[in-house]
Design a protein that fits this description.
five-stranded mixed sheet, 688 residues, alpha+beta, Helix Hairpins, binds zinc ion, single chain, 25 helices, OB fold (Dihydrolipoamide Acetyltransferase, E2P), D-amino Acid Aminotransferase, Chain A, domain 1, five-stranded antiparallel sheet
């Protein structure tokens, strides 16, 4: 019987989706990533498309949300709250655009309002005569839960409207938790031994559905409004002919401005775009600055801007034909934890690394994820053999955010954190108030030695071409190098005979080693691998203390007077140079011919950017924002967060937005990150 399996398949899919819906909407506690839900729903949609006779009224494809909780009273929406159709790639968006284009029968590119799709919880707020009457969640689209008591705790929600508002207003928005509030909430939860939230959306949903508004108030939620449900204006004597519709703007974008004028917040990234290409550009631009935005988004919503065109397009089932959500690639996926390795870093830090069944997430294949430290393993209660949710956002190292307990196997085994260094068997130590365990072996620990040499030769340090990680490991194993200074004693005989090392590559490597001797003081300091001394700190040390003699003799107070160096870093620097071995390494490097241009003390008044105010905006690709700030400060500039007429120069990274606009309006000089780097390196004292 060929028809039976497909019916069973549909039944199972619907049950699974219902279960996920319940966890997501009712319990606010999903155990699977959204991508899993999307996959199941898409599968069900495609099967139902082929077998329309099997669609039932209660199929998950036929409704918008979940059942309201019994603890809240219910509110019937004046007009239903709709859902949006999704597309996951630009081709599917192209097809949507084509359909709209033909239906409107336009001879011009279609104008869309493009909005970031906030990852929060949809709400509807009802105002009568300008006063907030109630607020409700989406619920099943027709009936939602009364969350007025919690909505009132959100500072940005007006309790009274302002301006020329309608007598009756039903306005829709998204309640969300800004990233910084979310981090604070989870930090406190960890401190108090409470359960953490997997992501800001769950935290927002959990907070909005508290029975006690005092708890919600502490959670610092935010809201942006994005659509009108209903708006009825009072009839005026003198323009009795004008209907409510006529008093509303005739485009979505202008209606948003009206909404804003009534005192309701809207997202400031919203823009008008003309045509499909421009929409996709917007998608790319917002995608590029997604990590910098203060809130989580999971895609872009495109809405046909003309209300007339919207009416013409109408609705299909419960979704409008004039809008679509374009989702970013999933940042969270589920996979299997196959094992945990313990890596020893350059400074002895022991890092547990999860070995995963490879999975495609955030646009790349991921097979490892960091577990950070012992506390994190305990907090997650993760076991080998568990299904885990991993997250990869932007260029951040993938991490495990939660364990799917529903799928825990009885054989899943606890992770045992080692008691001694897995490489050299030295005891581990842990500083008070720190989560990191470290190997105490120092340079007798071959892992630390190898890692410190790999760091020394790396591109931003001594930049020795051809001396890759594998070769360093071989040279260390064969005892050809025991410290970084030994690199400068390597001979051709040492190299030839190593695996895959012919005469030519040996010569090239020796040349690269020779070339690396001409460098800068900052690079040598950075190359030494002093704990928490990155490129910028190394540069500040060089520019303020000028030579190793001064750096070695500097006390804590002198070090802390230097820009960007706090008490902890100062302590690490002093400890490093107190070690006889480390001082000998420096002497040895110098005796082998490592050298750099002398740095002359500069008068403060000679700082090239003195009395200037700079602003950094958009995404920088080469320097971290804090590093760029520190460099500019070391050159005498003030770095400000906002553009004003007193701004000297604005550095605009990718997808710079409102600050760039303002700078152009005010006629302030705008340069690219590339131009800033050129300018910095043109000043003699700074070499990065
Ligand atoms: Zn060790």
């Amino acid at each position: 019987m060929p028809s039976e399996p497909i019916e069973i398949k549909i039944k199972i899919l619907r049950q699974e989706i219902e279960e996920l819906n319940y966890q997501y909407y009712v319990l606010d506690n999903p155990s699977y990533p959204d991508s899993h839900y999307d996959k199941l729903l898409q599968e069900l949609i495609s099967i139902e498309k082929k077998h329309p006779e099997l669609i039932t009224d209660n199929s998950p494809t036929q409704r918008v949300g979940g059942q309201p909780l019994s603890g809240f009273s219910q509110i019937t929406h004046l007009t239903p709250m709709l859902s949006l159709d999704n597309v996951f790639d630009s081709d599917s968006f192209g097809k949507f655009y084509e359909r709209v284009f033909h239906k409107i029968a336009s001879d011009q590119p279609i104008t869309f309002t493009c909005e970031p799709k906030l990852d929060g919880l949809a709400i509807s707020c009802l105002y009568k005569n300008g006063n907030l009457v109630h607020a409700a969640t989406r619920g099943d689209g027709k009936i939602g839960e009364d969350v007025t008591h919690n909505i009132k705790t959100i500072q940005s929600i007006p309790l009274k409207l302002r301006g020329d508002f309608p007598e009756l207003l039903d306005v829709r928005g998204e309640v969300f938790m800004p990233k910084d509030s979310f981090e604070k909430l989870n930090k406190n939860a960890i401190k108090d031994g409470n359960k953490t939230f997997a992501n800001p959306r769950n935290a927002a949903a959990g907070s909005l559905r508290q029975l006690d508004p005092k708890i919600t108030a502490k959670r610092k939620l935010a809201v942006y409004f994005y659509a009108l449900g209903n708006a009825e204006f009072k009839k005026l004597q003198n323009d009795a002919e004008q209907t409510s519709d006529e008093r509303l703007a005739d485009s979505h974008h202008n209606r948003l401005k009206q909404i804003q004028s009534w005192g309701l917040p809207i997202c400031d990234e919203i823009e008008l775009r003309h045509g499909d290409k421009a929409c996709l550009e917007y998608f790319k631009e917002i995608g590029a600055k997604r990590e910098q935005l203060p809130y989580e988004i999971d895609g872009i919503v495109y809405k046909v801007d003309s209300i007339l065109s919207q009416d013409k397009l109408g609705f299909v089932a419960k979704a409008p034909r004039w809008a679509i959500a374009h989702k970013f690639p999933a940042q969270e996926e589920m996979t299997l934890l196959k094992g945990v390795d313990f890596q020893v870093g350059r400074t002895g830090a022991i890092t547990p690394v999860a070995r995963l069944e490879p999975v495609f997430v955030g646009g790349v294949m991921v097979s490892n994820a960091t577990l950070h430290n012992k506390d994190e393993i305990e907090r997650l209660d993760v076991r080998v053999g568990d299904h885990v949710v991993i997250r990869r956002a932007g260029d951040v190292i993938p991490q495990i955010v939660s364990v799917v307990l529903d799928k825990r196997d009885v054989n899943a085994s606890s992770i045992i954190f080692p008691k001694v260094c897995p490489i050299c068997q030295s005891p581990l130590e842990k500083e008070i108030d720190q989560a990191i365990y470290r190997c105490t072996g120092g340079l007798i620990c071959s892992a630390q030695k190898t890692q410190s040499i790999i760091h020394f030769v790396s591109r931003k340090a001594m930049n020795i071409d051809g001396l890759g990680d594998k070769l360093v490991e071989v040279l260390c194993d064969k005892q050809l190098i025991n410290s970084v200074a030994d690199i400068y004693q390597l001979s051709k005989d040492d190299l030839i005979g190593l695996e895959r090392m012919a005469e030519k590559s040996a010569n090239n490597l020796l040349q690269a080693i020779e070339k690396s001797k001409q460098t800068s003081l900052a690079k040598v300091i950075y190359a030494l691998g002093i704990r928490e001394v990155g490129e910028v700190t190394a540069m500040n040390l060089a520019n303020n203390l000028f030579d190793f003699k001064n750096i070695i003799n500097a006390n804590l107070e002198e070090l802390e007077n230097i820009e960007d160096i706090g008490p902890i870093v100062a302590k690490h620097i002093v400890a490093f140079f107190e070690n006889e071995n480390n001082r000998q390494v420096i002497e040895s490097l110098i005796s082998h011919g490592v050298s750099w241009p002398e740095i002359k003390p500069k008068d403060k008044s000679e700082l090239p950017l003195l009395n200037q105010t700079w602003v950094l905006t958009g995404a920088l690709s080469q320097l971290k924002r804090n590093d760029a700030k520190a460099v500019l400060q070391s050159l005498g500039a003030k770095v400000s967060g906002s553009v004003s007429k007193n701004t000297t120069c604005v550095v605009a990274g990718e997808s710079a937005g409102s600050k760039l606009k303002k700078a152009i309006e005010l006629g302030i000089e705008v340069i690219s990150e590339e131009e800033m780097l050129k300018l910095i390196s043109s000043f003699q004292i700074v070499k990065i």
